[in-house]
Amino acid sequence: MRFLCLICGKIQHTLKVYRSLAEFNTLECAVATTGTFDGVHLGHQKILNQLVQTAKKVGGESVLLTFDPHPRVVLQPDVELKLLSSIEEKIELLEKSGLDHLIIHPFSKEFSRTPSLEFVREILVNTIGVKHLVIGYDHHFGRNREGSFEHLKEFGPIYGFEVQEISALDVESVNVSSTKIRQALHRGDVGLAAEYLGHPFTLSGTVVKGDQVGRTIGFPTANIGLDFVRKLVPSDGVYLGRVRIDERSYKAMANVGRRPTVGATQRSVEVHVLNYEGDLYGKRICFEVVKKHREVLHFNTLEDLKNQLAKDRDAAQTELA
Predict the structure, then answer these.
(1) Whole-angstrom Cα distance, residue 105 to residue 67?
(2) Does 246 share its domain with 153?
(3) pLDDT tens, 55-83?
(4) Model-level pTM?
(5) How many Cβ atoms sit within 10 Å of the Cβ of residue 81?
(6) 57: phi then psi, degrees, rounded to nearest 5
(7) How far apart are CA 259 and CA 237, in angstroms?
(8) Is residue 101 in some structural domain?
(9) For residue 139, what is the DSSP state?
(10) What residues make up the domain containing 224?
(11) Closest C-alpha to 48, from 59, 26, 63
């Protein structure tokens, strides 16, 4: 939705978020798409750009129907699926797209059994009010993924909507996919992941109390309690990046994974924010991961660790300039 800011005189945009289809009021002219949009990567952004542009062209409103939890979590509970973005991170990314409406509908086994025809007629047409449907390459929907682009082309004239399929998006001749991004992050290649995403990979959450060892050696860290348990965390290492705190950005470095020097075997995300003074406990912060600086090392003494952290800090100052 758009409104005129009385202070600056510019047209402002705000994304309306609904936590189920029941909260949504049917539109006269909805330009819609549907999918999980995990990570909101470049392929997703191409769909969203087309969605928003089409809505402007026809005088309609753009709508994304997505689901929580992720359908694969419900349908394949034994598969250990890690996701690129939490719902909170997804909303933040989608706010930048110019999208008007975001529907986050609860996904269940019962919902998964919705036949493709019923999905189109009752949800897309009668509930959302779709007049134009924009879908990604090789998109499937409905019970057993039976619905396809061909089905939508058949349903369109019957229910009064047009359908447009976006072709596969290539980045340096490699198809962008959430799977390829996950593989890059598992290798610690956050630079390649960012190329595919079109934005830095982020680790977000509320700062919780840790063992406070860093404070004793002059490198206090913010221990991020991640937004949700299925968040994909890159391979163990020391990473450089930036932290967003209260709408401001700071250079930072983070230990991701285990901390062998202090005997910590549980994986964690501990961020040292450069040139920041203040208490971060209880604040929600976002670490934008720019590059992997080095592997996690075991040091014989805390003094050795402190010396290495000083070198890491110097590298962060230089490489993030």
Answers:
(1) 5
(2) no
(3) 999 999 999 999 999 999 999 999 889 99
(4) 0.89
(5) 14
(6) -65, -40
(7) 10
(8) yes
(9) -
(10) 200-319
(11) 63
